[in-house]
Amino acid sequence: MTTDRHDIAFTLNGKPYERTVDGRLLLSDFIRHDLEFTGTHVGCEHGVCGSCTVLVDGNPTRSCLMLAVQADGRTIETIEGLTPDSAPLAPLQAAFRKHHGLQCGYCTPGFLMTATALLRSGEHLSQREIREAMSGNLCRCTGYSGIVAAVDEVMNGVGKTDAV
Ligand code: FES
Ligand code: FES
């Protein structure tokens, strides 16, 4: 009988982990069910909605399209990593709240992780460009304007870019 178990070592939100995982286990299920970081949400489970977005080595990644075994040697960041040790809201989270960039909140962790990578890039984008850069994440509630305004505020300061 063959086994399909793999030893992996990785960093999650700044802390080292070692685990043994099934070869077919999705990263999204691993993060939520095994590691109990349930801030990462699962929507479509086939790479469309972006709600499961985490950062892998700094790059926004759909965790429903990646296997847990592929996390070996990688650095993973989830929404919980934005506020380590239950710190107050990160500036990006506070901006989402201020600009009503969320309603039900289901999509929000994915948007925040995508936006975090965008902000780290150091680029200064217009609202139109921010909207384009975030277009891989879907929201059924907000109409996106508040999300774009929140990212714009953190990236450029209030009112520095064109309206959409
Ligand atoms: S749950 Fe992964 S993209 Fe929708
Ligand atoms: S806030 Fe409900 S899906 Fe985006």
What tags apply to this protein structure?
DNA polymerase, domain 1, 164 residues, alpha+beta, Ubiquitin-like (UB roll), 5 helices, 2 domains, binds FE2/S2 (inorganic) cluster
Structure report:
It is elongated, with a radius of gyration of 16 Å. It contains 5 helices and 5 strands; from the N terminus they run ββαβββαααα. Strands 2-1-5-3-4 form a 5-stranded mixed beta sheet, covered by helices on one side. Helix 2 (91-98) packs across helix 5. The chain has 2 domains: 5-81, Ubiquitin-like (UB roll) (Roll), CATH 3.10.20.30; 91-156, [2Fe-2S]-binding domain (DNA polymerase, domain 1, Orthogonal Bundle). The longest helix has 13 residues, at 108-120. A hairpin with a 2-residue loop joins strand 3 (53-56) and strand 4 (59-62). The model has no long low-confidence stretch (mean pLDDT 94). It has 164 residues and is α+β, with helices and mostly antiparallel strands. The termini are far apart. It has helices at 27-34, 91-98, 108-120, 127-133, 145-156; strands at residues 5-12, 15-22, 53-56, 59-62, 75-77. Helix content is 29%, strand content 16%. Bound molecules: FE2/S2 (inorganic) cluster (FES) (2 copies).
